[in-house]
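Review box. Two proteins, two foldings.
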Amino acid sequence: MSSDSPDAMTNFDDSKAYAAQEEVFFDDGREIELLHFVYSRPNIDEIRGSPEKVLAAIDEYGRTRKYLMNVGEDKGRIVTDLIKEVKPKIMIELGGYVGYSAVLFGAAVRDAGGKTYYSLERNPEFAAVILSLVDLAGLSDVVKVVVGSSDQGIRRLAQQGLDKVDLMFIDHYKPAYLPDLKLCEELGIIQQGTVLAADNVIKPGNPPYLEYVRSPVEKKKQEFLASTSSSGLGTEDFDDRYSQQYEKTHGAERLDTMIKGDPRLVYSSELIKSFEPTGVPDGIEVTRCKGKEG
């Protein structure tokens, strides 16, 4: 399941491209506008109970009205193929936005015999959009929305008895990818057989996360022993456009730099190149936990 270039996969179909991503690309009212758009479709009765038609309506809005920061068809196919392979009983996504991935992957989890798809979303308005579209798609029995910051949501699930995540889709606040993975490691829910699929590792990129999941255990152990608490925000490796994108609603981000993870976990990781729904090249890092050393 690897590729050396976007062209190694199916070429991007420009006729399906979303509207261009502009300087302001979310949280400007378009998410609620999307709901009105979907529910005003003339075929709304046909859309009810059909994940495929709900996704088609969301895609239509993204193509004809305004850009939406969804995983899209191309990268989405990578993850649905993983779901068919892994057959997760429990799948978690970090970052739900308007529910595109929750509908797409939630339906795939259901079809693969899975039990629950947890969608963690910090913005309560976005979470309400997810809930509405998940219900419209007929997936409320599978998809559960957890409102709050990703670290709080992860801790809450662990406290409620979650002992292992089979498949996790990571697509939220970019500087939080690595701290949240390390939190999952510390809580013991990353185990042999767990698969991680991290979006946007090319656009905009995520060097700290990629370095960690690609590092051998010995290197991680050395860094674990040498690490000290940081006085920084934990966002220094990222462009301001992404590190400050939630500042308007949540204030300055300060990630928990005390989380150290479990360096004994053995990963194999590969980049699968694909495209954003706009046609811009991007990729998903697929990481498999092979077990634990020592």
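Next protein.
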Amino acid sequence: MWCAPIGESKGRGGAARSHWLRKARRSGAMAAAVLSRCGGGGAVLSALLAARRPYSSIFRAAELRVEQSPHPKPKPPPEHLKFGHTFTDHMLTIEWSRSDGWGPPHIRPFQDLCLHPASSALHYAVELFEGMKAFRGADDKIRLFRPELNMARMGRSAQRVCLPPFDPMELLECIRALVRLEQDWVPRSEAASLYIRPTYIGTEPSLGVAPPGRALLFVIMCPVGPYFPGGHFSPVGLLADPEHVRAWPGGAGNCKLGGNYGPTIALQQQAQALGCQQVLWLQGPQRLLTEVGTMNLFIFWHREDGELELVTPPLDGLILPGVIRQSLLEMAREWGEFAVREGPLPMEAVLEALRGGRLKEMFGTGTACVVCPVGGVQYGGQWIPIPTMENGPKLAQRFLRALNDIQYGRTPSDWAQPL
């Protein structure tokens, strides 16, 4: 188990050491002068000067410390991987405190965290996380997919819960170093990948709803297999219940906070009891479609004027600005084969398009699945089939193939540069 260093609450002994450390920092210059005049005292002088660390407003990848695990674990075959259950040998940790700023980044053996029982992440959900992947291509090179977008979103989430700012590019360099160290954990399979989970939590050891005086940024990783077992592009069924909402105007639905996910589990269980796999989240009197489970939502249809259109809910604060979402929008606009729109999607407009035979495909997008087709919606006490699979689904499969080709290096792209 890894516990935080001297400055945190460790009982009376820890308090005494912390008091000594503060005194040493204040008197470091005086001690150096005295010991210099007295001659010698080199060991004591070195200890005092080491204790005097200036406040650091950022951490730097150049200061990364690496402690390798003496007991590497065996790597499971890709076909036996279960999402989020097997973790790599190492993790990245970076500490922050209001008094000292950022400590140096540290790669250490994967282990439990040691948190004060009053840590603000545990009581007030002062925490956030990200999700990204590393892919090994047929050329044996490892690539991250648009990681700078994850880092930017992580910074916005941190601002929302008053966690201290960090340099996203420095964090990305630390993550790259962690992936390089764990490169044998990146599956040698174009149906699997290494999932990367950056996490940022408040560790303030006191009760009270306030910005934390301590924080911990850490990154863990786990190899994951294909989202669709056996390679089958299987559709999901959705439960749409307007009595429950995921996010609301003025809230934090556009941030990747743990507090946005825990309250959705109960309705997810209800959906599964009704034979559905995910929840279609609705919002407001118009019952606007927002997200599908933890995925962004897309609809491909003929507009009333007959023109083909790809439409997805707008970034109005209700939905997460997904990396795959942004990538599909940019890709579709570059193709220029149909209209592309970010705009509100009332449930009645979707039902009307279904009645008129204008809706072709509905699918979700996200880091885990990339693209996930929708086969039907349970709404208003009835099952409403969605003809996604009957239409190929040509567009959903095309998006999936195009993105996979980039992720695994079959199509060269700035979106997925080799490490």
